[in-house]
């Protein structure tokens, strides 16, 4: 039960995007389509899971004072792995996510979980926490990406829903990201209050 | 001419915050008051130019010449993190007044993706060192422009009667969206 709570908190209650407002740059930058949002979400989930595992394993070996730089190096190593793997096996996704893949390093969610959770908890609960928060982040990205793709290009996951003559192009452009996220957060706030 | 294109492109057309979505955290976090927005801009400009120069030299003379280009992400973030520490220590000794003004913003800058973003973009766009410096300065100006504009709007927003559900972050994001729409008017300029 406890572990289930640990896993599921990332979806609504402690959702990194909608509630904690962390990791806003990739959230706004890559969600012009649902598939990009999913790719970014899963890449971040992998980094979160692996860095949480490693940090919880080495937490007693790292001196208190150099803890943050050590965490950053651990995270950067896994980001490089993701970057190289994606370049080799998913070149088109890598191209559309572009700069935001190396920027997972400075995503506050990853460092935040390492510092706030993995450096204090056991291996198993850190791994569960990483997957839970990562999937919550992916959920937020896919939701935002789907809404923008439906409104802005009349498609979802590249399946056409309605004619391109009726789309509002604004939503796949930069302003649409801010506006859709603004309304989504307002809706989530409303749900949480009830 | 080339430099003018870089400057206008980075400040207006591809504004780092509103068009490229880099540095959103400080954009939302410290834009509640105009004075903090200006302080943050100063700190970002300072570190951004320094970091671009140092990462450029590291890429050129260490990573490229040793064939270690795949270590770019790790090397750059380490350089930026230690640079921020160094700047903090030096400022504290040399100019306590400036340290007082920038103080609280400096540690936040390590995780500001605008710094790492501009460093990587300078390499990706294959600029030379001078072009890279111009590009970094222009991006810092663009960051400052967006931040100051947004802080000015938000100071007014506090006094307005916003619908209850939209108060706080949601209305700020929607305002940023409208601001981004205004910046779209510059597209096609270069």
UniProtKB/TrEMBL annotation, chain A:
EC identifiers of the protein: 7.-.-.-
Keywords: Cell membrane, Electron transport, Membrane, Translocase, Transmembrane, Transmembrane helix, Transport
Protein name (record): Ion-translocating oxidoreductase complex subunit E
Entry's family note: Belongs to the NqrDE/RnfAE family.
Gene: rnfE
EC class (word): translocase
Keyword Membrane: yes
GO biological process: electron transport chain
Top-level taxonomy: Bacteria, Pseudomonadati, Bacteroidota, Bacteroidia, Marinilabiliales
Residue ranges crossing the lipid bilayer per the database entry: 39-58, 70-90, 96-114, 126-147, 167-188
Subunit and interaction comment: The complex is composed of six subunits: RnfA, RnfB, RnfC, RnfD, RnfE and RnfG.
GO CC entries: endomembrane system; plasma membrane
Location in the cell: Cell membrane; Endomembrane system
Stored Pfam families: Rnf-Nqr
Function: Part of a membrane-bound complex that couples electron transfer with translocation of ions across the membrane.
Superkingdom assignment: Bacteria
Membrane topology: Multi-pass membrane protein
TrEMBL record, chain B:
Any coiled-coil regions, as ranges: none
Location(s), subcellular: Cell membrane; Endomembrane system
Keyword flag Electron transport: yes
EC primary class: translocase
E.C. code: 7.-.-.-
GO biological process: electron transport chain
Membrane topology of this protein: Multi-pass membrane protein
Keywords linked to the UniProt accession: Cell membrane, Electron transport, Membrane, Translocase, Transmembrane, Transmembrane helix, Transport
Transmembrane segments: 6-30, 37-58, 70-91, 98-121, 133-153, 165-186
The keyword Transmembrane helix belongs to this UniProt entry's keyword annotation: yes
Cellular component per GO, a single term: endomembrane system
Family that this chain belongs to: Belongs to the NqrDE/RnfAE family.
Primary role: Part of a membrane-bound complex that couples electron transfer with translocation of ions across the membrane.
PANTHER family recorded: INTEGRAL MEMBRANE PROTEIN OF SOXR-REDUCING COMPLEX (PTHR30335), ION-TRANSLOCATING OXIDOREDUCTASE COMPLEX SUBUNIT A (PTHR30335:SF0)
UniProt subunit comment: The complex is composed of six subunits: RnfA, RnfB, RnfC, RnfD, RnfE and RnfG.
Protein name per its UniProtKB record: Ion-translocating oxidoreductase complex subunit A
Name of the gene: rsxA
């Amino acid at each position: 039960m406890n572990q289930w709570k640990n896993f599921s908190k990332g979806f609504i209650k402690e959702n990194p995007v909608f509630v904690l407002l962390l990791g806003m740059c990739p959230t706004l930058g890559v969600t012009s389509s649902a598939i990009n949002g999913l790719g970014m979400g899963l890449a971040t989930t992998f980094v979160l899971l692996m860095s949480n595992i490693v940090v919880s394993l080495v937490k007693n070996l790292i001196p208190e004072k150099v803890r943050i730089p050590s965490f950053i190096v651990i995270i950067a190593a896994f980001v490089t792995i993701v970057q190289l793997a994606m370049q080799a096996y998913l070149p088109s996704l890598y191209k559309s996510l572009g700069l935001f893949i190396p920027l997972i390093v400075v995503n506050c969610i990853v460092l935040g979980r390492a510092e706030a959770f993995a450096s204090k908890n056991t291996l198993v609960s850190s791994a569960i926490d990483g997957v839970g928060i990562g999937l919550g982040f992916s959920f937020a990205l896919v939701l935002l990406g789907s809404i923008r793709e439906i409104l802005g290009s009349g498609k979802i996951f590249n399946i056409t829903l309605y004619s391109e003559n009726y789309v509002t192009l604004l939503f796949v452009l930069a302003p649409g990201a801010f506006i859709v996220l603004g309304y989504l957060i307002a809706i989530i706030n409303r749900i949480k209050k009830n | 001419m080339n430099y003018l294109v870089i400057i206008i492109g980075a400040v207006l057309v591809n504004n780092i915050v509103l068009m490229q979505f880099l540095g959103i955290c400080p954009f939302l976090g410290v834009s509640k008051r105009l004075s903090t927005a200006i302080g943050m801009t100063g700190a970002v400009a300072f570190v951004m130019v320094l970091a671009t120069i140092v990462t450029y030299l590291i890429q050129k003379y260490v990573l490229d010449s040793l064939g270690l280009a795949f270590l770019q992400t790790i090397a750059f973030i380490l350089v930026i993190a230690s640079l921020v520490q160094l700047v903090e220590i030096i400022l504290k000794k040399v100019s306590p007044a400036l340290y007082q003004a920038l103080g609280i913003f400096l540690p936040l800058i390590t995780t500001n993706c605008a710094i790492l973003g501009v460093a990587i973009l300078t390499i990706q766009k294959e600029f030379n060192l001078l072009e890279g410096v111009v590009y970094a300065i222009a991006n810092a100006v663009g960051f400052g422009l967006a931040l100051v504009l947004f802080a000015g709007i938000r100071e007014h927003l506090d006094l307005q009667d916003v619908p209850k559900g939209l108060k706080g972050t949601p209305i700020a994001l929607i305002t940023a969206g409208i601001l981004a729409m205004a910046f779209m008017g510059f597209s096609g300029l270069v």
